[in-house]
Amino acid sequence: MFKTKKITALVCLAFLSASAAHAADLTRDNGAPVGDNQNSQTAGPGGPVLLQDSNLIEKLQRFDRERIPERVVHARGTGAFGNFVEEADLSDLTRANVFEAGKTTPVFVRFSTVINSGGSPEEARDPRGFSVKFYTEQGNWDLVGNNMPIFFIRDAIKFPDFVHSLKPDPVTNLQDPNRMFDFFSHSPESTAMLTWLYSNRGTPASYRKMDGFGVHAFKLVNAKGEIHYVKFHWVSRQGIENLTPAQIPVVQGKDFNNLTRDLYGALAKGDDPKWDLMIQVLKPAQLADFPYDALDDTKEWKGVPERKVGTMTLTKVPANFFESTEESAFAPSRMVPGIEPSEDRMLQGRLFSYADTQIYRVGTNYMQLPINRPRVPVTNNHQAGELADSKKEGSINYDPTGLQDLKQNPEYRMTQLPLTGTTQQRAIAKKMEFVQAGERYRSLSASDKHDLVANLVTDMSQITNEENEYTELSYFYKADPEFGTRVAKGLKADVSRVQAMAAKLEG
Ligand code: HEM
């Protein structure tokens, strides 16, 4: 019934817009009607084209400027609108009203691949971005995550180098596993994430059939100012489905836009995908209870139960790809009262980087675009700049002032964090690089283990530096001897040398 209604509505909309197009004048950007859109003005039948043809000049100028810089990572993306319905009452944990029982909050979601450019194939082995913008009654909250629960590195200072090693070689412009594994073999903290990426989770069959993870710990703060640390997990109600190594070339040969087509095809049929939002919760004192640093984003919180808090449903394909999916700007720093960042060193770097790149990529006033604009009034003293359209009126553009009454509610002050010691530049104490990679390997089915090993062998066979190859193998061996042995054998490497190197590694 619902499906029929939705399809009828789509057909009606298509009809309305088609008939409107027939009725309306074609205009220039100033709204003036155009007389002839097929022939330029010329000086007689054989003369040059006239500069006074402002419709022609405007068309060419606008075309010349159609591109904005694509995202430096996650350039290939697909967006959809929907809503999030909170079911649980989380007032014991947070004052954020997106988490009030029964509250429905509109969302915009963007799924993406990470490394390749805007038009690249969607089947590439890559993490998938899973970004959710909640338009809450207290302002926008962006949960900018991935389809895997952890990340490759734990300190933002390594991020530009990490991305450079994965991006195409600056000489050949080709992605090169030799460069990637040069970086990874010098970054043992990446071992667990590689075990995820090279499993078939690295090639999802559908955006609808993958989970999402906030990855970092965040803080929830309740009305009494009490803090809890949480991790977020979107569980797909469609289940998980991945492409096997054998399926990838077949799918890619038919359609390298398969993930977008799958999502938009489902939405057009009214087969709206859903994800349940789960949280894990720790009291601050419990962070110390783990053999690893609980604020290290290369770690999952093992043994901490998850509870379901609500459900997100995607319902609508945006009507304009560029003005929604391309111009959307997600940032981990975009939070609302009751949600704060944890001290995770990666998250702390991300708090700066996203809004910074968006000022460059989209423009200074990118937050005023409809896709990014909060659904609540924005009242502050930011002003002017490229394409400003705040509609702000009045003379008072400073604070403090006695001439205007703008409240600052102390209830919304950031929570306080007790500190000790001096400033420092030091790695975290509890690294535990390999244990969770081994656990992940052992959790896989026999066929998934086979594919993981085969996928790694394919890329690691391109490593040209023997020391790098053996170092990387020693990480997998340390994670799980069977795992390391299988990859080593696949590469025809000396297993006893791998074993000896692994024996020298810590935790
Ligand atoms: C310090 C580490 C990181 C830095 C500096 C960084 C930086 C960036 C930048 C500059 C963008 C482009 C944003 C834009 O142009 O709008 C981006 C996009 C993105 N990043 Fe990161 N990133 C980091 C780590 C991570 C991690 C750990 C995750 C996953 C948990 C992640 C997930 C994403 C996603 C999903 C997008 C795409 C957002 C969208 O759909 O528009 N990033 N990142």
CATH topology of the domain at 77-151 and 202-368: Catalase HpII,  Chain A, domain 1
Mean pLDDT: 94
Number of strands: 10
How would you sum up the global shape?
A: globular
The CATH architecture of the domain at 77-151 and 202-368 can be given as Beta Barrel
Give the helix proportion (percent range): 25-40%
Described by its quaternary structure, the protein is single chain
Counted by DSSP, the helix tally is 14
Please specify the SSE layout and strand pairing:
Elements: H1 2-23, H2 54-64, E1 77-86, E2 104-113, E3 128-136, E4 139-146, H3 159-166, H4 177-185, H5 191-197, E5 212-213, E6 218-221, E7 227-236, H6 247-254, H7 258-268, E8 274-282, E9 307-316, H8 321-326, E10 339-341, H9 345-361, H10 435-443, H11 446-460, H12 466-479, H13 481-490, H14 495-503
Antiparallel strand pairs: 1-2, 1-9, 2-3, 3-4, 5-7, 6-7, 6-10, 7-8, 8-9
Helix pairs in contact: 3-4, 4-12, 5-10, 11-13, 12-13, 12-14
The structure holds protoporphyrin IX containing FE (HEM).
Please characterize this protein's 3D structure.
The protein has 507 residues and is an alpha+beta fold. Among the domains are: 77-151 and 202-368, Catalase HpII,  Chain A, domain 1, CATH 2.40.180; 435-503, no CATH class. 31% of the residues lie in helices and 15% in strands. Strands 1, 2, 3, 4, 5, 6, 7, 8, 9 and 10 form a ten-stranded antiparallel sheet that branches. Strand 3 (128-136) and strand 4 form a beta hairpin. It is globular and about 85 Å long. It starts with a helix and ends with a helix. Bound molecules: protoporphyrin IX containing FE. Protoporphyrin IX containing FE binds next to strand 2, strand 3, strand 4 and helix 9. Residues 27-407 form the Catalase core domain. Keywords: Heme, Hydrogen peroxide, Iron, Metal-binding, Oxidoreductase, Peroxidase, Signal. It catalyses: 2 H2O2 = O2 + 2 H2O. This is Catalase.
